[in-house]
Each structure stands twice: as structure tokens, then as C-alpha cells.
Amino acid sequence: MGPGQGTGAGQGMVPGQSTVPGLGMGSNGVPESVDRRVERLRAASGNGGRVGVTYKYFGAPDGATAARVPISMRPEELGGDELGMNGMFTKIKPETMAAMVLTGIEGVPLNKVPPLELVVLHPDYAVVKLPMTVVDPLRGIGEEAVGAAAFIWSTVPDRGGPRDAYNVYQLLHEWQDFSHRLHEAGHQPYCLVWP
Asked: How many angstroms separate the CA atoms of 127 and 145, rounded?
């Protein structure tokens, strides 16, 4: 057969198969569009279609040490065990963690939360430094202030992160413990981001 010649539209098709490669059939027998299929998969994933990104918060004495973390992943090279058992894994972005503390505890408006400092950008991972203002305020507050911060954050409109006040409260408690460990080790907060 030459160019432009074929078997004709619809010939040789298997029932329930799309006419476009890579597309499935909808429940009504009509081929699903790419956009529709992506939306259906996003809804089924329960996480809005985000890939499973993990955020590992850890302490390091400086940026050069923090930059070596993805290579070694060995806490003894950090002069402590912040990356090991005392680090903190979460699905919460560092920007959101910073905003939760600064907005909920310090009363900083969302648009005034300072940007994070990029330490390493690699195709497979990134390391960012969080400002000390994101961990320092938690060391000097009690249960009532953590609860109030959780409530405040749960009511802030147009923001990401957890919405339930109790979940925010638990997360801020973990962050508070993390801030104490950082202070004791004399470390600064960093976040390793990888898929």
C-alpha cells in the first residue's frame, strides 16, 4: 500500500478499543480524551495528581554539608544524627511548613513569608535551606500557642497543606521537636526533596 491508502476508517478495530493510540474507551463507548483521562486518574489518586514527592527535613551545620547529604545519606558525616532517626519525613512542602509557622505563630501574612534558599538542584533531587525563623519560634511556645497556631493555619484561605486543625497541631508538634533537636545540635534546617 502507498501513502494515503489504508483499510478505511474503523476497519480492523477491536470493540472497546480507541482509535487513538494510548487512549481508552469511556463507559459510553466513546474514546476518552487525554485531558479527561488525566483528570480521572488524578481524581482516583486522591492526591490531586501530584507524584509521590517526599520531603526529608534534616539539620546540618552549613550548606556545604547539607549539599553532600543526597550523596552520602550517612548521618555520621553530618556530625550528628539529624538525617537519621531524628530527621523528619513528610509530604508537606518546605514552603508550606515555613508558612504554617510564620503565619500561625508569628502572624506573618502569607505574601510576606520569605523564600527558601536553594542549596542544590539536581535532576533527581533538590536541597533547600529554610530560614531559622521557621524553627526558632517553636522552641519557646507551649501547648496553647501550638493549638492556636494550628487553628489559625486551618482557617487561612487560599493556601496549601493540611486543612484539619488537629492534623496541623500534630505536624507542628513534630516540627517543634525537630526544632529542639536542631538547636541542641547547633544545626540549621534543610530539606531534601526527591520523588
From this structure: 30
Cell numbers 524553627 correspond to 135
- Phi first, then psi, for residue 109 (nearest 5°) are -60, 150
Instruction: Render pLDDT for 136-191 as a digit per residue (tens, 0 to 9).
Output: 988 889 989 999 999 988 888 767 777 788 988 999 999 999 999 899 989 999 99
**What are the start-end ranges of the H helices in the chain?**
34-45, 63-72, 94-104, 136-139, 143-155, 165-185
- What is the three-class DSSP state of 83? coil
Cβ contact 59:190 at 8 Å: yes
Residue with cell 478499543: 17
Q: Strands of 117-121's sheet, edge to edge?
A: 88-90, 54-60, 188-194, 126-129, 117-121
CB 61 within 8 A of CB 186: yes
pTM greater than 0.70: no
Maximum Cα interatomic distance, the chain, rounded to a whole number of Å: 79
**151 exposed, middle or buried (CB, 10 Å; 0-12, 13-18, 19+)?**
middle
Q: Which three cell numbers stand for residue 144?
A: 496553647
| Residue 124: other Cβ atoms inside 10 A | 7
Cell of 35: 485531558
